[in-house]
Specification:
mainly alpha, 68% helix, single chain, 9 helices, flat
Length: 180
């Protein structure tokens, strides 16, 4: 009976890994298709091209999210939704590492879409985008960065100088502005 339980757990884990690999392969194919086209600045795209690119980005985000949902950080973020859960340094590192691994395709497209004369798109920038996409409360994002909530708002505002607003809207919903 114990052996059967172990085999069941291993089979489930292998199935999740296979699903994750399939999603990654799909994302890689999309990324290659985007790389094959000459990268045109966002401002030079017509509305139809912008809509197509936003759709591709939304699909990439969705695929990366499904990969992230299989990481330990998914459970940590669920715990952080509860006010009584305290964030540890180990939790912070795990979350940042899992986001970096799961959302690598999203991070790459964010870096490609920065304005040419904008300051460098930092790790804190993409982490803020993805944490907001995951609907983590502003207070918890501030806690993860070890800064005040107002500083998180300022970081978000500075992103507007780096990334086109249509792309930022994929990460920040309208309710985020007045969040806790």
């Amino acid at each position: 009976l114990a052996l059967a339980a172990i085999l069941l757990v291993v089979a489930r884990r292998n199935r999740r890994k296979a699903q994750s690999l399939k999603v990654h392969e799909t994302l890689r194919r999309s990324e290659l298709a985007l790389a094959r086209t000459s990268w045109v600045q966002w401002a030079e795209l017509n509305d139809e091209e912008k809509a197509l690119r936003l759709s591709e980005y939304a699909n990439t985000l969705s695929g990366c999210l499904s990969i992230f949902r299989q990481t330990p950080s998914e459970h940590i973020l669920q715990l952080l939704q509860k006010k009584e859960t305290h964030l540890t340094a180990k939790m912070t590192k795990t979350i940042a590492d899992d986001i970096g691994k799961s959302f690598i395709d999203v991070i790459q497209f964010l870096r490609m879409e920065t304005y040419p004369d904008a300051p460098k798109f930092s790790e804190a920038d993409w982490l803020l985008c993805i944490l907001s996409y995951l609907h983590l409360p502003l207070s918890r994002i501030a806690e993860l960065f070890s800064i005040e909530k107002d500083s998180v708002r300022k970081k978000r505002h500075r992103l507007e100088a780096k990334i086109p607003p249509e792309i930022l809207s994929l990460f920040f919903s309208s309710h985020d502005a007045g969040e806790d």
